[in-house]
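Here comes an entry:

___
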Amino acid sequence: MAPSLCALYDAGKIEAVAVRQKATFEAALQFARAEGIIPAPESAHAIRAAIDEALDAKEKGEKRVILFKPFWPWQLRHGCYEAYLGGKLEDYDYPAEAVKAAMTDLPKVSLPA
């Protein structure tokens, strides 16, 4: 992640959320139909989270400002959309023990004061 994004997260100004693959591409197609822009898969995750946030606000009767930053890369990976539309894209839960094992090998980094 970008240093500025990490700083915002560390300061508690933004939250990080995980979204499922199929729901992500569902949101991407919804966005494409509404806006006429096919989002990159990376942006589709942000779009899914923004839609979920808006639906949560609506359900709770709350007004919220929801901001997301789409990323429009020069190369769109059509294979992801092909897999989703072809019913071949699967939601996958990465095993918690694999995450824990990977975390043990990360370098120790000191943050500036």
